[in-house]
Amino acid sequence: MAKKEIETLKNDLTHKFILESSMQKGNISYENLEPFPKDYDFIQLIQKFKEILGKASKKKKNSTNKNKAPVKPEPEQNKPVDWTIQLAVINYLRRLLKHEQDVFNQTFYGLKLYENILEFFNSIRTILAQNALILFNEVFTHYIPELDEKNQKAPVINLIKLAIPSLILKATTSQSFIKNEAKTCLETMITNMKYNDTLIALLQAMNSQKIADFELAYILSNKLVKNLGKEFFVNNKHFGNIMNALGDIYENNKNDLYKRRCKALLTTFEEVMTKDEFNKCLEKCNKRQKEKINEIISSKLQANTKKEIHHNRLKSKDENKANEKPKTAFNTKMILKKQINIKLVSSKVAQKENCDNANQQKAQKI
Q1: What angle do CA 344, 349, 352 make, to 5 degrees?
Q2: Cα–Cα–Cα angle for 23, 25, 26, nearest 5°?
Q3: pLDDT digit string (tens) for 95-142?
């Protein structure tokens, strides 16, 4: 966004509170998000949201290579938006979510602004990334389930599917405060967004080849199964889709760790329901889905217990000792030198003690 446009935004009264909020250091808490004035006109700002959020904040560097042709200056329309304005729009959306949820749904879901805000998770501006995560956390916290009756569930499900891989990545690879913000966002999601698609998306995230991402997706899936409860699965017509996603993890990954976690998840399902209820749920699955689940059940793999982990550690230590290289002649010489030095030091200490004792005896005689 060009400087002239920024100046017009600053002079425009409708944008004043946005720029003021963006200039504040730190993050605005949910309690301090102020309401809008009565008869406020949202249309003027909402029309510019997609333009403001859609442009990357990174500036391109001009090439200094003499052999290459000079880079032409970017037109004013294509210049990157000031990151403070992007931060201000996130705060504006947070205010809409708190005080004007109908308008928020029309903009956030209707214009698919969540697709643009997801990109800010990877922003070089940490405050921008953190506030984007805060917005998603508030969306999951204050989501109204009654909206599903108005056929507005589909955008929320699409949001969840897109957000889960990015949130898990942020929760395992980012700086500490970004990592914590992503984890709280994921915990809020599995607490409030109790849907089939949430669990399926988490199970699909378990296919990641990064062990940290896989383990976090497994922990979240396990918690969500417990949060959903028995009634959710017993009355679920699409239980086969969940089992299909679980079976895909077992089939697609040769690593025993992945297979063990799949079996552990099945035991969690059996803990939530009785065996009869679980078997009735399996009857809803098709032939292929049943084959996948029976393969997991019949496998002899078990989740590692504490004793097994301790045994494996001791076994690995013994193997490391057995694989140690024999000592070379140089190493033996060094060991002999150390032993000689220790003997010399101990003899000198003994001589000093004897001298001290002799001096004390002389002093007593005198």
Answers
A1: 125
A2: 130
A3: 888 888 888 888 888 778 888 889 889 888 888 899 999 999 999 998
- Does residue 152 contact residue 105 with C-beta atoms inside 8 Å? yes
What torsion do the CA atoms of 59, 65, 67, 72 make, to the nearest 10 degrees?
30
Q: Is 294 left (phi over 0), alpha (psi -120 to 50) or beta?
A: alpha
Q: CA 136, CA 122: separation in Å to the nearest integer?
A: 14
pTM of the model: 0.70
Q: What does R_g of the chain's alpha carbons equal in angstroms?
A: 32
Residue 243 near residue 292 (C-beta atoms within 8 A): yes
d(CA 292, CA 240): 11
pLDDT for residue 215: 94
Asked if residue 268 lies in contact with residue 222, where contact means CB atoms within 8 angstroms, the answer is yes
Q: Give dist(CA 314, CA 335) in Å, integer.
A: 28
Whether the Cβ atoms of residue 201 and residue 245 lie closer than 8 Å to each other: no
The encoded tokens of residue 93 equal 């959306």
Residues 47-70: tens digit of each pLDDT? 677 677 765 444 434 434 445 454
Query: SS in 3 state form for the chain?
Result: CCHHHHHHHHHCHHHHHHHHHHHCCCCCCHHHCCCCCCCCCCHHHHHHHHHHHHCCCCCCCCCCCCCCCCCCCCCHHHCCCCHHHHHHHHHHHHHHHHHCHHHHHHHHHCCCHHHHHHHHHHCCCHHHHHHHHHHHHHHHHCCCHHHHHHCCHHHHHHHHHHHHHHHHHHHHHCCHHHHHHHHHHHHHHHHHCCCHHHHHHHHHHCCCCCHHHHHHHHHHHHHHHHHHHHHHHHCCCCHHHHHHHHHHHHHHCCCHHHHHHHHHHHHHHHHHCCHHHHHHHHCCCCHHHHHHHHHHHHCCCCCCCHHHHHHHHHHHHHHHHHCCCCCCHHHHHHHHHHHHHHHHHHHHHHHHHHHHHHHHHHHHHC
Residues of the chain with pLDDT under 70: 1-26, 44-45, 47, 50, 54-81, 144-153, 300-339, 343, 345, 348-349, 362, 364-366
Residues with Cβ within 8 Å of 365's Cβ and at least 6 positions away in sequence, in order, are none
